[in-house]
Design brief:
This protein has one helix spanning 75-99, and strands spanning 2-6, 12-21, 24-26, 31-33, 36-49, 52-56, 63-69. The chain has 105 residues and is of the alpha+beta class. It has one domain (2-99). Strands 1, 2, 5, 6 and 7 form a 5-stranded antiparallel sheet that branches. A two-stranded antiparallel ribbon has the order 3-4. The relative contact order is 0.24.
Length: 105
């Protein structure tokens, strides 16, 4: 699942994405991450030129959170993660908007 929300700032949108991660060592912070479905929320500057869309973002400006830990990827687990997503999404979205001085349109 991937969704873009428009903000009050020109050419800026918030990207919300639910992704499956195999887990293991994160080479940026050297922590072991769980396998499962993760929610990623990040503000983006979007530039459209003809048929091309360019997404730019600032490092460490977004957040991610584990929604559902699983042993393997499946349609059933994905559906369950989508159902569990809403509460965490609202909480993280408020933080992103406040930290970046943004409002949704």
């Amino acid at each position: 699942m991937k969704k873009y929300l428009k903000t009050n700032k020109e050419n800026t949108e918030v990207k919300i994405e639910l992704k499956y991660n195999l887990g293991g060592l994160n080479y940026f912070n050297y922590k072991n991450e769980s396998r499962g479905y993760w929610l990623h929320i990040q503000p983006l500057e979007i530039e459209r030129k003809g048929d091309c869309t360019i997404e730019s973002y600032q490092c460490f400006s977004g957040y991610k959170a584990l929604i559902l830990e699983t042993k393997r990827k499946s349609d059933k687990a994905y559906t369950k993660a989508l159902e569990m997503l809403e509460a965490k999404k609202t909480e993280m979205l408020k933080i992103i908007l406040t930290n970046n001085n943004l409002n949704l349109i």
